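Field reference: sequence -> structure
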Amino acid sequence: MKNYYEILGISENASNNEIINTYQDLIAKYHPENFTGEARQLVENRLKDVKEAYSVLSDDFLRNQYDREIGIETNIRIDNTQNYIVEPKEETKIKKERSKKEVSNNPKIGTVDSLKELTKEVFKSLSKIERRPLNKKGVLSLLAAIAIIIVIGIILWFIPSTRGFVKSVLFIR
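Structure field:
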């Protein structure tokens, strides 16, 4: 795997501004118009690597993923709203240790028993859902959905390469 930090010539703790400035300097330095012959080809290859490194390291999500792949401890996490949150490294270590303890304290995680328990909980929550009678709008929506499925089936029936699939769905031999 390529080391993008070495390609750009920056440290693993470089800020986004450092990455951008270094990228711009390298683009100017390795501009193909400044070279001829065999050197130009080498510079174009180097420029491809620089652009690839910049595209990964300039995006916080991709950089976080890359850092994990090459084994660098990262201090960026992503919350459910896809916001990037920078945490102190000590706090990240504490969270990792806490999650390891939680997993080791619960031997059922990842077993068939845990799957059974999860299934039971899901069905319990389904029974609590309030069921309302269909109104006119709901019935029309249901009929429209059925009509669309039938039309798609008819279209697929007349396409020779998909006729076997339609037959298998309809259990026709």
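Note: The two ends are 52 Å apart (CA to CA).
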